[in-house]
Write the structure tokens for this entry.
Amino acid sequence: MKRLLILLLPILLFSCIKEETSAKKYLGVVNIVSFNMPDTAFLLQPFQIKIIAEAETSCWSNLFADFSIYQNAYEYSLAAYGWYTPSSGCASSIVSMDTTLTVTFDKKGLYYIYYTKTENDIIKDSILITNPVK
């Protein structure tokens, strides 16, 4: 019985080891090809920022947007990202994301939004937040 166990143990161990077959993925910046935001909005009332982001090959997947504070409470960054899986079989097709962000600011003032048009081209836009008209 011991001999059988000693013979089977390596087989059982090696059968549980799974060979990695998936390709490596890398997180990368994708281009924001369309950006639309109002010039003004009201304090504590939501407004929308609409973007379209695109990547140029089918090696890109799972595109998403990130909107976060940039340097202070009046400056925000907006970038689009995706997962890139290098492969020689990538088709030359557009992978895109069309999304709408709903944003509410709790302080009056001029806010700056920096968005990534391309990896090396950051665009600065602004929105004025005012008190609602009574």
Remarks:
- The beta strands are 26-36, 40-42, 47-55, 60-69, 75-84, 95-103, 109-118, 121-130.
- Residues 2-16 form the longest helix (15 residues).
